[in-house]
Amino acid sequence: EAGVTQFPSHSVIEKGQTVTLRCDPISGHDNLYWYRRVMGKEIKFLLHFVKESKQDESGMPNNRFLAERTGGTYSTLKVQPAELEDSGVYFCASSQFPGQGVSYSNQPQHFGDGTRLSIL
Amino acid sequence: GENVEQHPSTLSVQEGDSAVIKCTYSDSASNYFPWYKQELGKGPQLIIDIRSNVGEKKDQRIAVTLNKTAKHFSLHITETQPEDSAVYFCAPRGGYNKLIFGAGTRLAVHP
């Protein structure tokens, strides 16, 4: 079974430019999450999709970040315009939908290897 | 708010010794407690998890213990090997289904 795949693995852009990160979850996983780790900080939650719907976007830092998951398969995270403080590693994770009567807590989150974003 | 503290930040042991990493959380509603291992250039990999209705879980050399009253859970690695060297994160589940990560523990196992 293929794991969570993220592309690109590394992106270097200048301040003010636009960058789009992509995440392909494990096949059949309805839940998709974005997290990020900026310099010197912990890994922080950004948002959670259930299929194509945003379940929780409480971690999105500002309106320069736009996440989409059209069709409920892969997801993109666009940063426009990028700022210096956006530099860090962006992780995507996925988990199975628990199904009726089953708690979310029974569904572990599996992470991709991340995209390292460098803003110059 | 949700707060997670992880100790120690670095841990150095000799091969064959045991290693213990502790995580303290603030959200009393948390009911899922995973530990992740991250190797250089890779994403966090789930190594063990525990639910709030269980006090201890073991998987070969790795175990997790949970004390819900005190709001802390610990990772225990026995008979450490050089390949156990990595950064370990606790990540108790917070509101909805998001994980709240600790700052990480860098474990070095010396041959």
**Mind describing the biggest β-sheet of chain B?**
5 strands, antiparallel
**Overall radius of gyration of chain A:** 14 Å
In quaternary terms, these chains amount to heterodimer
**What is the radius of gyration of chain B computed over CA atoms, rounded to a whole number of angstroms?**
13 Å
Largest interface: A-B, 27 and 28 residues
Q: Strands of the biggest beta sheet of chain B: in what spatial order?
A: 1-3-8-7-6
Specify the biggest β-sheet of chain A: 7 strands, mixed
Please give a structural write-up.
The complex is a heterodimer of chains A (120) and B (111). Chain A contains no helices and eleven strands. In chain A, strand 7 and strand 8 form a beta hairpin. By secondary structure, chain A is an all-beta fold. Chain A has strands at 5-7, 10-13, 19-24, 31-38, 44-50, 53-56, 65-68, 75-79, 88-95, 110-111, 115-119. Chain B contains no helices and ten strands. Chain B has strands at residues 4-7, 10-14, 19-25, 32-38, 45-51, 56-59, 62-67, 72-77, 86-90, 105-110. The model of chain B has no long low-confidence stretch (mean pLDDT 94). Chain B is mostly beta strands. In chain B, the strands form two sheets. Chain B has a five-stranded antiparallel beta sheet with strand order 1-3-8-7-6, with no helix packed on it. The chains are: A mainly beta (120), B mainly beta (111).
What's the quick description here?
The complex is a heterodimer of chains A (120) and B (111). Chain A has 120 residues and is an all-beta fold.
Q: How do the helices and strands line up, and which of them pair or pack?
A:
The complex is a heterodimer of chains A (120) and B (111).
Chain A: E1 5-7, E2 10-13, E3 19-24, E4 31-38, E5 44-50, E6 53-56, E7 65-68, E8 75-79, E9 88-95, E10 110-111, E11 115-119
Parallel strand pairs in A: 2-11
Antiparallel strand pairs in A: 1-3, 3-8, 4-5, 4-9, 5-6, 7-8, 9-10, 9-11
Chain B: E1 4-7, E2 10-14, E3 19-25, E4 32-38, E5 45-51, E6 56-59, E7 62-67, E8 72-77, E9 86-90, E10 105-110
Parallel strand pairs in B: 2-10
Antiparallel strand pairs in B: 1-3, 3-8, 4-5, 4-9, 6-7, 7-8, 9-10
